[in-house]
Amino acid sequence: MASCLVTGGQGFIGSALTRALLERGERVAVLDLPDPPFEGLEAQGVAAEVELIEGDLIDPGKVAAAIDGRERVFHLGAVTLVGPAAADPIATYRTNVEGTWTLLECLRDSEVQAVVVASSDKAYGPSPELPYREVQPLTPVSPYEGSKAACDEVARSYRAIAGMPVAVTRLANVYGGGDLNFSRLVPELMAAVVSERAPQIRSDGSPHRDFLHISDAVAAYLAIGNLVAGGSGHGEAFNIGTGDPVAVRRVIEVVDNLSGGRLRPTVEQEQGAVGEIDRQFVDSSKVREATGWEARVGLEEGLEEALGWYTERAALCP
Ligand SMILES: NC(=O)c1ccc[n+]([C@@H]2O[C@H](COP(=O)([O-])OP(=O)(O)OC[C@H]3O[C@@H](n4cnc5c(N)ncnc54)[C@H](O)[C@@H]3O)[C@@H](O)[C@H]2O)c1
């Protein structure tokens, strides 16, 4: 039984990962803000089983207390939405970059066996080279992209300067039950079905994304945690996705079908959402070769799971 820390564990991916770690018998502590945007640990039904440390990632005292004695650290805490990141780039860089180096500095002389840091496929920026491969340079444009690229570089540099057992994940667009960020596409579609209203869609439906189900995302974190704790993958970045780009329009269609035609989408905007990249998907062959991980959940199956989750929690849906 390992002692694990999940930063950002109140969030979508962090809370699902926390639940999965608990199900495997690990001990889990979570570091998150005292007033997180939502309480993912409650939504996952695991709040009582977790040691919750309330604090900011840029507070070295809190972080030092949170990492004490941990064998595996999963660093997911971040400003994660593109719009708020553009509105307040300084706060975004502080949390996403300073927060990352604060954590890594605190871990320098610890006995930690694995540190897995969340970067993003957005760190590649609007690169025309598709699918993204780990050997490509990171060419971010927006503050969110820039902050994830910087966090990615900072994390990998700790392998060189401190011999740290650290790896970086570059996940594609994660969706599924448990995401309470209703400004994102899938939660908004689900809330619209459950609340019987028209969804707000911030593009013309043409952007293509690599939609990865939350269960596949969690499985990837567990696999990379094991890889790093086993002595491999240090200083490496790993893309995590399906490799199959899907148009936003197609996601809307599937949700409409699953809801028996109750969705009634109106796509108002003529172009893609401002500041978002038009087409993105990743090549995940590196993580597959290193760990055997691959995405298993297809889009229809994943959206059906999500619809069931939100339907059971209608009170959470705006
Ligand atoms: N969701 C995706 O599609 C996706 C894709 C690629 C990468 N990522 C990355 O994965 C990670 C998790 O994403 P998510 O979707 O679960 O995000 P989320 O927004 O649901 O959760 C982020 C969590 O971080 C916490 N946090 C923010 N600032 C903090 C601070 N200063 N100190 C402590 N905690 C803080 C928030 O309170 C929240 O609970 C992020 O690093 C994100 O950049 C997400």
In short:
By secondary structure, this protein is α/β, with parallel strands linked by helices. It is built from eleven helices and eleven strands. Bound molecules: nicotinamide-adenine-dinucleotide.
Polypeptide structure, described:
This protein is of the alpha/beta class and about 325 residues long. It has 2 domains: about 5-170 and about 215-240, 3-Layer(aba) Sandwich (Rossmann fold); about 175-210 and about 245-275 and about 295-315, UDP-galactose 4-epimerase, domain 1, CATH 3.90.25. The chain is about 40% helix and about 15% strand. It has 11 helices and 11 strands. The protein has a 7-stranded parallel sheet with strand order 3-2-1-4-5-6-10, with helices on both faces. The protein has a two-stranded parallel sheet with strand order 7-9. α1 links the parallel β1 and β2 (about 25-30). α1 (about 10-25) crosses α8, α7 runs parallel beside α9 (about 250-260) and α9 crosses α11 (about 300-310). The protein is globular and about 55 Å long. The protein starts with a strand and ends in a 6-residue tail after the last helix. The model has no long low-confidence stretch (mean pLDDT about 95). The chain binds nicotinamide-adenine-dinucleotide. The site of nicotinamide-adenine-dinucleotide (NAD) has 27 residues, from α1, β2, α5 and β7.
What would you report as the Rg, rounded to the nearest angstrom?
19 Å
How far apart are the first and last residues' alpha carbons, in Å? 39 Å
- Count of separate DSSP helical elements: 11
Task: Outline the low-pLDDT stretches.
Answer: none
State the major sheet. Answer: 7 strands, parallel
Helix amount? 25-40%
Quaternary: single chain
Strand order of the largest sheet: 3-2-1-4-5-6-10
Q: How many separate domains?
A: 2
